């Protein structure tokens, strides 16, 4: 074991032991307080339980937390959640990682890669790799973050953890409504805002109720685009989101409750938060074209870009309660249609330079359209004991059938004429392979059929008043079939069908010991898994010989498996809470994603051994009658334990023992505070001021970014007077950054005003690195929203 790793492991172990030894002292102090403290109830174990009684690491952000923080996205909300990191790739495209379990950035042309964090809307699974649903946070009861593998109760895709949006349910016999309006402006950007409303109405006294939520949000753009002939377009990444939820609750009998629901949402974005540093058409090396050095929050476009996401979720939950057993049935249907429309002119143009086409062909506007359509049916049936005996049990069955179709088209008007001129008349039609339309040098269709069946169960046994034990297991069986069909000059003309299947058992065992009524200590061993798959064939016609030899042999990749070893403690008392966990994750066959260089492809493969080790904590304290403070953080070491080499013996893509896993900061910390004035101003019932600070440490977008010389890029493309031998040198270690937010609120009996400044210091944080065709066509970083001023108005009706 390397000295560095030994030292860190000893440090973490020492910290863990000392903290656990101190737990009784903390508990003793806590017991001196009163017991009047609000307890948050969660359903992380598929039972309603106090968050402090859940025997593993969990965070819950409540409706009050969401409202007072002014959070409008999952990224905003999780700033104060330890162990959770999010790559912001734009609305509907962010990627979530927990506890350092990460395969690196997954991009839009890897539809076969599965998610590492499961996402649920109440009881319905809504996870979709590449496209984490960007649901609105209005009228949520809470958002639960379940850290660590949740393979027993939540299955595949929860290897790092699970996120659950928990909505407010229709209430019987009560009429209430609320409305929320916002306007905001971004520094050097556009103006945005939203309008949201909720109504809860009884349709009769005690057996039927309705709850509807509707919202419309306008996103302010902040990225500027340069274009041909000196054109400039401001704030090109704005957009809008519109949607709602409609639910009925029917108390059919005293024991049976049925809740059907419809969720609908549409997102339309005009562009992406991409900050370019090099573009084939805009760089400082050209002489026959204007030499351009792109600046902060700038990009270069020949075409407008866009992102569309239409989501429909229809589900129904039936709950039957008897004297001894609770039965639950959940059926969910999801229909999503996602279109990512990118300006691929630099990509297509770079290939045209390689092919020796004239400048007029290189400069043709080219639009890469990635479309994903998904239809998914899921059914879960479970039964849970409710007797109050020392032994409690839960058993269930889960089934899902997913039909997912991914397609690519590259409409480039006028391109076929250059293809036929360069390679002979009729060439463009000959390489179409029956699917490529006119003037689309690349086209592909990839239909997927994924079917899964799982049976799971969990036992909870209270050995005595102090000690509780939990044992859970899940048997799963998956089958996936995928066809790959491609056509066009840039394609291989593939038509192949591949199938993968997997089955196995995942288990966990947890021990929870109550030191007293306020403090408990827990330990667990748990397993998680993520399904494998098949890589798409490389675009061999685009590959140089070296890249073809290096990446051409990767085809299947196996399931990723993880074993989590964890200890922690939880303390709650009036005025404060303290939660702590230390963990070690042993990862087998980690699925790592690499850029296949000139091939304009991405491939996934298995790394035999890797690990993550870390500590996380969350502390809240009512410091005085007026001051509330929270402090959350994590320190995580995530590294490869295996070195992978190519055929020449060279380390492949930075996958070397001791190198860091991608996309994960080692350190991540957040402090938030709220101060309520003793004497509210402007005749309000309450006046408060809030401030938060978030620190995120350094990261790498993908493993190869930490290899010496990785930031040296040479396009090899003589164009526009550039020789193609010029070097662009970048630091690919994404720098640490800090975000400061301030807000102030005035609360009255029925309404509230919130004034805020987000990103007070106007930090331009580099969130991930983007390279088009291995960096030959374009180099860019994705960045965050600049300083934003806003005001939110809320009103409640009863």
How does this model look, in words?
This protein has 798 residues and is mainly β. 10% of the residues lie in helices and 51% in strands. The chain contains 9 helices and 41 strands. Strand 21 and strand 22 form a beta hairpin. The relative contact order is 0.14.
What key phrases describe this protein's structure?
41 strands, 9 helices, mainly beta, five-stranded mixed beta sheet, disordered N terminus, single chain, Maltoporin, Chain A, 798 residues
Question: In a few lines, what is going on in this structure?
Answer:
The chain is mainly β and 798 residues long. Helix content is 10%, strand content 51%. The protein has one domain (3-797): Maltoporin, Chain A (Beta Barrel).
Alpha plus pi helix count: 9
Q: Main β-sheet, in a few words?
A: 22 strands, antiparallel, barrel
**Shape descriptor:** globular
The tally of strands reads 41
**Share of residues in helices:** under 10%
CATH class: Mainly Beta
Structural class per helix/strand content?
A: mainly beta
Q: Can you name the CATH architecture?
A: Beta Barrel
For CATH, the homologous superfamily is named as TonB-dependent receptor, beta-barrel domain
Summed over residues and divided by their number, the pLDDT gives a mean of: 89
Distance between the termini: 64 Å
Strand content: over 45%
What is the count of distinct domains?
1
Radius of gyration, whole Å: 27 Å
What are the segments in which pLDDT stays under 50 over at least 5 consecutive residues? 1-37
CATH topology: the name is Maltoporin, Chain A
